[in-house]
Amino acid sequence: xxxxxxxxxxxxxxxxxxxxxxxxxxxxxxxxxxxxxxxxxxxxxxxxxxxxxxxxxxxxxxxxxxxxxxxxxxxxxxxxxxxxxxxxxxxxxxxxxxxxxxxxxxxxxxxxxxxxxxxxxxxxxxxxxxxxxxxxxxxxxxxxxxxxxxxxxxxxxxxxxxxxxxxxxxxxxxxxxxxxxxxxxxxxxxxxxxxxxxxxxxxxxxxxxxxxxxxxxxxxxxxxxxxxxxxxxxxxxxxxxxxxxxxxxxxxxxxxxxxxxxxxxxxxxxxxxxxxxxxxxxxxxxxxxxxxxxxxxxxxxxxxxxxxxxxxxxxxxxxxxxxxxxxxxxxxxxxxxxxxxxxxxxxxxxxxxxxxxxxxxxxxxxxxxxxxxxxxxxxxxxxxxxxxxxxxxxxxxxxxxxxxxxxxxxxxxxxxxxxxxxxxxxxxxxxxxxxxxxxxxxxxxxxxxxxxxxxxxxxxx
Length: 461
Ligand code: FAD
Ligand code: NAI
Fold this sequence. Notes:
This protein has about 450 residues and is of the alpha/beta class. The chain has helices spanning about 10-25, 40-45, 45-65, 80-105, 160, 180-190, 210-220, 275-280, 315-330, 360-365, 380-385, 415-425, 430-435, 445-455; strands spanning about 1-10, 30, 110, 115-120, 120-125, 125-135, 140, 155, 170-175, 195, 225, 230-235, 240-250, 255-260, 260-265, 270, 305, 345, 350-355, 370-375, 390-395, 405-410. It has 3 domains: about 1-140 and about 270-335, FAD/NAD(P)-binding domain (3-Layer(bba) Sandwich); about 155-265, 3-Layer(bba) Sandwich (FAD/NAD(P)-binding domain); about 340-455, Enolase-like, domain 1 (2-Layer Sandwich), CATH 3.30.390.30. It has 14 helices and 22 strands. 1,4-dihydronicotinamide adenine dinucleotide binds near residues 176, 198 and 314.
């Protein structure tokens, strides 16, 4: 039970790290405390949420949009049990896939809680596993609000919100971040009245302001309502309906909002419980994240950390790329992650996608830039599909034309952002994207037009 590398945690960061290490010839093992591999993302995060977003979108389309295209269907009936089974089938398939990949790459697996007991030594429920290198990939957990108990039935985190067996009459969402808007969309489409309470005076902090404002208008048009600059301070769960006390963010008179279900989605915190980090002398920062250097190594030689448990965006693909990079570094290669080109996607309808800097960040940094914007109302494919909400915006350095950021609202925004991400990886300019031939008729022509608009010469506007 002695390895070149042992990874603790099998979420996207951990399992990808283990596979890359095995590819590079390192004798590798993983430790997982949960019943299944795949971590938050595969079990209670990315995968189940996308299954429900997909199914609920089709449910809504069938109910609203088919008739206009001449497709006569009777009013769709919701079989939530079957929709949940569809979701679970997708989860199971993905989880089994990770199991298969571990076997294929000859990665040993240990089920149990990993606790670092000394240099190169990990205890797994009483068994000792030895490792030249340890990678911590233990992920994150739900942020809780003081005084509000999550029972995962009526007061739920994302995990409970993914597993409801009944559509709530009224869903109150606390937090207008990614989880609140994705899962709020799911339940609104399936028939719930959805109200979102957000602490700040805007939705989606960190996203480009113009994008957030237009996206809020789109969500409101779809029927979601927002109470910004407000916080939930208590939830009375004694009666048949929940009674949430909502106050202005800065404090003041509270009002009561009733709801059948409250979704608490106010962020996630790094998860390091039971890992023995204190005893091992591994330093953490003031937000409970494992501190690492530029090579993902903690202050203790031979112990590394990646994914949600360290600084940076809490995204599956960010963790995966760190997993590859740290495995390559441990194997003596030049692993690297470009944090300036990590895309971020919200899988609502339409989708919201961004990469690189926002206008606010560029202004704050004093970087002179030119913005090119192209609306989907002027894109032929969007017009014919009647999906014209949204736009593509590209931000390029004023002097060099190098792309510094891009922001898209629109169907398939999550797929379209990749072309700009690739351009950014190659230090591409707006002119490079503008001169690249794009197939017609596609939504991606709006990306080309936005790149042309940086130089004020879009064709179709
Ligand atoms: P995790 O996936 O959290 O995995 C950590 C693993 O470590 C877990 O399996 C845990 O059981 C295990 N573990 C912890 N401690 C120990 C221990 N001591 N011993 C053994 N095992 C241990 N991101 C996206 O990029 N796209 C999305 O669409 C997306 N959707 C999301 C939707 C929801 C509802 C949520 C909650 C998150 C979503 N995320 C999404 C975020 C994404 O899930 C995380 O960024 C990602 O899972 C982080 O990967 P990780 O490997 O760092 O940690
Ligand atoms: P978040 O950080 O995206 O949003 C939390 C929101 O809650 C913020 O707008 C914040 O201002 C607000 N808030 C905080 N305290 C509050 C309070 N007391 N009252 C009201 N509002 C309050 O966190 P979220 O949505 O929980 O998601 C966690 C993480 O999971 C995300 O940051 C993201 O990294 C990841 N994720 C990614 C997805 C994707 O990539 N599509 C999907 C879902 C989650």
